[in-house]
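Team,

Forwarding the record for the chain on the shared tracking sheet. I've put the sequence and predicted structure together so nobody has to dig through attachments.
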Amino acid sequence: MPRHTNYSCRRLLNKTLLPVVICLFFSSFLSAKTYMTQEQFLEFVSKQQPSSTFQTKTLWLKKEIQSNISNILNHKYPKLRLRYKINDEPNTPTSVWYLNEIGKERPITFGVSIKNNRVQMIRVLEFRESRGFEISIPEFATQFENIGLNNSQQLDRNIDGITGATMSVSAMKKISRLAIFLHKYILTKSSEAK
């Protein structure tokens, strides 16, 4: 093959293939959309309870807890511990959780506040999927407000789905159930310790 043809092929590859490879590599990073930081979510929750302060605590995910989590998520939670926030109201404490769940292929980060064993607020903090971003719309999330668990540990109210976002909606439902379970768990353990 003549030398100028080989050079032309390399030049063509550099001009076309290299940009495509770079775009594919960085597209996974570009698809993540941050809607709210953890600090902004906590500030939003705190505005609803201005007289209380939140403390950071740690919950170790022991075998007993992971077993219950597996029943809710259909898999173990991929961490050994969870950090959460809890306020200092003795009768009706509010806990704040930052939890991840896979939608279809990538994790979705949620902020959830729980009070009286019911979802006070849930928001999508970071969305990494290519579809289903509609769950991040605050109007969609309002249907989760004041939702609790029934005796079967399922949500006690129906949630309207979104066409094309079935797995993202399912992830949001699972995280709501998980946050309520975790809230009940920490309150039970703290009352046993007294």
